[in-house]
Amino acid sequence: MSTSSKIFELSKLKNGIIIYFYPKDNTPGCTLETIDFSKLYKKFKNLKYDVVGISKDSIESHLNFKERFKVPFHLLSDEKVQVQKKYGIWGMKSFLGKKYMGTIRSTIVIDDKGKILKIWPNVRVKGHAQEVLDFIKSQK
Length: 140
Known about the structure:
The chain is of the alpha/beta class and 140 residues long.
């Protein structure tokens, strides 16, 4: 489900798409990543790419996050982690020596024909949105 109140269908897109998977709304890294993609959103759109963020947070959480940080693109809720499992984004993580299953911060770029052009697994947030923009520019 999307913050547009509609089911998101990848097959209905006319542009390429950047899908970034992030662990949780309103956490420092996820907020910074979302702000960075938001700042570059018009540049992505000019290159004919849409942006969506996906986490397992609820639509209500996404709507609050989107409003709070003026996010110009849709956030998708994957509460049952079906999409994350499909893309291999749901996996074993470790924090302070404790292992658990969670979202592996990742980004996928898909062209307007549905072909995956690049996957960034285990993303480091700082400068990542610019790295994605630079990659897309290099494909033109």
